[in-house]
Specification:
- This protein is α+β, with helices and mostly antiparallel strands.
- It has two domains: 185 residues, Glutamine Phosphoribosylpyrophosphate, subunit 1, domain 1 (4-Layer Sandwich); 38 residues.
- 34% of the residues lie in helices and 24% in strands.
- The strands form two sheets. The protein has a six-stranded antiparallel β-sheet with strand order 7-8-1-2-9-10, with helices on one face. Strands 3-4-5-6 form a four-stranded antiparallel β-sheet.
- Strand 1 and strand 2 form a beta hairpin.
- Helix 3 packs antiparallel against helix 4.
- The chain is globular and about 55 Å long.
């Protein structure tokens, strides 16, 4: 019922997930991330326990192929499940069950994986992959949204569209960005709007949050407001440069 992307940014250890579907609140069930370790997407007849168990296995450093095997092997419904994952070994692996609704399939690369089911055809995955490669110079958020748009233009979920989500995680214990469009007539347009809103202040503000290195963060409001203003002004100047 879904197609999704897991993208690894190797130099920063950031992970991005983007997903779209004709089903309610896809962001609440499909993606799971263990920061600094890996990520997975459970879809088709999704099994939420894959996320719970998968994060535990990622904390133990389990690699992608073993992660997929350990999650699907004991599941009697595995023929109806689709799963793709970035493992603790930095590799990708996937499972598309034989009973998943066609078109269904997955693509595995060195930098990202894409998987989908109940799609208009294989071109949805192919166009998503093509756009991910073509837009490698874009910031991660814009690259992921562009790739989903390319998949949608190729047909997307053959039933239509309803929800979408975009997650970015670094190595902290909380996400850098978590945007969810749970029910919308044009979820990718709404997702893109929310991503743009996040850059108005949130992306400038989040640098002051507590971190592992600085568990108290910066909490002086005067400092925060001044530095946020500086950051916004600097970004605006950079955007005006030829």
């Amino acid at each position: 019922m879904t197609w999704s992307i897991i993208l690894a940014e190797r130099n920063t250890r950031r992970v991005g997930i983007a997903v779209a579907t004709c089903f309610f609140a896809v962001g609440a069930r499909v993606p799971s991330v263990e920061p600094g370790r890996g990520a997975l997407c459970s879809q088709a007849l999704t099994n939420p326990l894959y996320g719970t168990r998968g994060r535990q296995l990622l904390r133990e450093g389990v690699g992608a192929a073993d992660l997929v095997r350990l999650l699907t092997a004991p599941d009697e419904g595995r023929a109806h499940r689709q799963l793709h994952a970035l493992g603790g070994d930095g590799k990708f692996a996937a499972h598309t069950g034989a009973a998943c609704v066609p078109w269904c399939g997955h693509w595995i690369g060195d930098e990202f994986s894409v998987a989908g089911n109940m799609l208009a055809g294989p071109e949805v995955i192919a166009e998503t992959v093509r756009e991910l490669r073509a837009q490698a110079s874009l910031p991660m958020t814009l690259r992921l949204i562009a790739a989903l748009r390319a998949g949608e233009a190729a047909g997307g979920d053959k039933r239509g569209k309803q929800s979408a989500a975009l997650l970015i995680w670094g190595t902290e214990e909380y996400s850098e960005l978590d945007i969810r469009v749970d029910d919308h007539t044009d979820p990718l347009t709404e997702l893109a709007r929310l991503e743009a809103v996040s850059r108005e202040r949130w992306t400038h503000f989040r640098q002051f949050l507590p971190t592992r290195a600085n568990p108290s963060g910066i909490y002086d409001r005067a400092i925060i407001d001044a530095r946020v203003a500086e950051s916004i002004a600097r970004e605006s100047r950079d955007q005006r440069k030829p």
